Amino acid sequence: MILKGACEARFLRTLLLFNRSHWQQGRHIGNGVMNNLFLTLKCLRALSLSPDHDVVGLPNSIGDLKHLRYLSLSATSVVRLPDSVSTLYNLQTLLLHECNDLIELPASMMKLINLCHLDITKTKLQEMPSQLGKLTKLHKLTDFFLGKQSGSSINELGKLQHLRGTLRIWNLQNVMDARNAIKANLKGKQLLKELELTWKGDTNDSLHERLILEQLQPHVNIECVSIVGYMGTRFPDWIGDSSFSNIVSLKLIGCKYCSSLPPLGQLVSLKDLLIKELGEIMVVGPEFYGSCTSMRKPFGSLEILTFEGMLKWHEWFFYSEDDVGGAFPRLQKLYINCCPDLTKVLPNCQLPCLTALEIRKCPQLVSLLPSVPSVLIVEVEDNTREVLLEKLSSGMHSLKLGKLKSLDSLLKGCLSTTEEILVRNCDSLESFPLDQCPKLKHVRIHGCPNLQSLSEHEVALGDVTSLCSLDIRDCPHLVSFPKGGLAAPNMTVLRLRNCSKMKSLPEYMDSLLPSLVEISLRRCPELESFPKGGLPCKLESLEVYACKKLINACSEWTLQKLHSLSHFTIGMCKEVETFPESLRLPPSLCSLKISDLQNLKSLDYRGLQHLTSLRELTIDSCPKLQSLPEEGLPATLNSLKIWALQNLKSLGHKGFQHLTALRELEIESCPMLQSMPEEPLPPPLSSLYIRECPFLESRCQQEKGEDWHKIQHVPNIYIYATC
């Protein structure tokens, strides 16, 4: 093994284990292996253990690596670090990022006096070791956790004068004395760029919470500030103060007792503002904009503004009745989500740069912005009242509508310019006026149970020359396309999914849809056949899944005429016992996926050998298939994936030796597969994956397995043990 070889290099200084690129047999590296490693490699300066090795702990012998300067355990399963880590006096970098099970740091960690970088992002830590302020060389400390009784108090931060980058302070509800907060000296940390302050739980002392937040004022160089779970009723004066001219991002989240917003309009560099779950805010008014002048408009740099989960908010006023065109001059994206009482959105405001507008779960909203000349993307979802879009930009190109009771007023005047539209979960939609959308390129209609027609009138559609893609899903009452077909010469993609009553595809597809390159049909059980004339000759990708009647008629498909077809997927049918047999596939096919054919018993060797361009073959979830063809698979394959064949016992008499182009082989969830083929795997094979195949796992054990000699030449072997 690699680690065994490493132990023989006694003077090794750097050991970085990223992934098990060659051999994966055990579930984790045991303490015994690591103990031997640490006792041997005492000259190590840098050590990194990969999450692939499932490290759950370190032996005490880690403390013998006295020269160690860099230690990374990021994304491993380590729960605790041994106290001996505190004796690594030369350690400068300790990375524990995404150690999701880590609950405790060594109690004597203050002894690591040379530590400069400590990354404890995304762990389960709830407190810091005591006297952490002794680590005066710390430049990077990602998180600081305040415990209830023990551990370092917040004043320990005051001794860490060189902190820079990002700092998150957690559990501020555990600060008992507000005077300790000022000792953290955040105001003196000039190199901090991002600061997040987080409270959890609830208190009855809003004044105490406000005093704490006042004392945690950062230096004016700060660029990003997040305040989460603050329990005061007012924000302190420093939030929104114009002296913080470098703030570009501000997030106020879960400050549920605050009844008014600070004057954030005064932050001249602010670009991204999120206000979320401030449950007592009822009105956004002049206080939000602050003291601005005609020379300096409020929110002059803001580009993204998000309001979310404002349950009592019902009205948004402009900052001055005398000037309706000054605020938000650069706002590009406006998101308003889950504000159930909101009735109006800036009715007198002009937003010259707005390009994206999203309104979700605002059932009382009755009007949108009257003058938005540049908006390109609009999303409205879950509104019970009618929302008017008539006065939005004539250049709007993307419209998303969802869970709306009425669509008439929304669609009126919009479809003449819209290029992309998504309508989802709209019970009221019975017909979609595809023939009234001269510029429409991309149409998605999802989850509209009452949709019956793609034309407002029961007549043949005219030319829809701009249409490029049509995606219809979960529309159970849509039976067919308009008579006469769909004259869309530029359409390249057609997808139909879960349309349970759909009986026929557009007529004359071969001539009216000459540019079509992709067709995906999933769970349309009433589809009976392809239209007369067949499919368009330029078709490159075809998927037919869970379309029972259509698959039963596969002998009539004439796919052999599609000389451009390169990708084909077929699946979910109980009637197919042999494949491809009567389904004649074109020799141009490069990728073939066979999935969920419950009664498939054999693969037709002759039909497969005809596929002289086949590069990728996937066989998935065919429980009655017991063997691959005895004569072998197409020699052109470079990728073979065999998944969930519950009764597969043999990979075929001929094996894979003739597959001289094979580069990748995956075998997964084949519990009855007894062994690898008799001959060794082909020399070009570079990656072998075996998962949940108990017989193969045993036979392919390194050096001692009966099939080891057949696979040992493969550069990358991945074997995952059955759980």
From TrEMBL:
Boundaries of every R13L1/DRL21-like LRR repeat region domain copy: 154-277
Ranges for domain Disease resistance protein At4g27190-like leucine-rich repeats come to 537-628
| InterPro entries named in the record | At4g27190-like_LRR, LRR_dom_sf, LRR_R13L1-DRL21
**So which domain of life are we looking at?**
Eukaryota
Per its UniProt record, what PANTHER family does this chain match? LEUCINE-RICH REPEAT-CONTAINING PROTEIN 57, RX N-TERMINAL DOMAIN-CONTAINING PROTEIN
Report the protein name in the record: Uncharacterized protein
- Which organism is this entry from? Salix udensis
